[in-house]
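We emphasize that the prediction below concerns an isolated chain of 351 residues; any contacts that depend on oligomerization or on bound cofactors are therefore not represented. The input was used exactly as deposited, without trimming of termini.
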Amino acid sequence: MTEELAQIRPIRAGIRKVAQASGFSVSTVSRALNGYTDVNAETRRRIEAVVEAMGYQPNYAASMLRRNTTQTVTFVVSQPWGKYADPFFLGVLDGLEMALTAQDYDLQVVMARDAKREEEVTHRIVERNRSDAVIFARTRPEDERVDWLEERGMPFVTLGQTSRNSHSFVDRDQLRIGREAVARFLTLGHVGIGFLATPMIYTYSRHTLKGIEEGMLAAGYDPGSVRQIECAVGGRTGADAVTELYTRGKMPTALICGNDVIAISAIEGLKRLGLRPGHDVALIGSDDAPISAHVRPALTTFSQDLSAMGLRLGRLVLARLGGDPTIYHEIIKPKLIVRESDCLPSVPNEA
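Result of the prediction step, given as a token string:
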């Protein structure tokens, strides 16, 4: 066999030439190369030796079809908050792509227009065999996608939590964001606090609110005194929210914003009302979007390493694809970045 192999020129050969050179059938060669256990060790060794000598490279697409895999992971992205792509997700996707590429997986990003479409898109990806695993964000406490994917045995990981957390996830510590934002404002002397929230259908929005309420309660204040207005994609903006509070005559002196897009919109809304953000009204955001350091006043906000979050997501989904049944929960600690938008109250406050 060794002498025969020495005569074979290293060229890009097809599977039929490998079969001819090795003396086995095309079917046996194919099964050996695709890891079927009914091929004995000696036969596999001889075929692999021929493959190495001939420089054979299997047809990748055909191989994926035979094994019923796509070597692709799909991230289902919800509608962005702004006109362009959401900077939060862009940072996460950067790290996720690096983790997957290192293991020869491609990252596919699919857009969903709203909550209902998120479910439809997820179903379509799985039912049409377009991906080996799914990642999705903006989870809800009772999330149909989790139950549906678990029932079908489809590998998945979430960016965010559910009420059961029976699945692997990576999430920011939204409770900490709520508590620390309240503590920061109370330390500065604010009592009248408002919360411009992301939609409360999402778990992370509820966790932020819970953190705010815990922070107020721990300081001896009524959690119910926090004036909350929900903002949404295609609906009420941060500017709309502050206008609503102003016209009600209940403008807080400090605003906690569910994300930086809401906060930046609120800054513009306050200016139109003749109020000075960072002087008359203090604001804290939540994402540390790249533009947040460049608005005026520069936005005080919470930051986290988004690329590292993406890397962790990638490692978790690769573990699932590798057959690891362990459920991993990773909570990322955010850091308060103090800039110019939070401030002392310009006039004394009342609860």
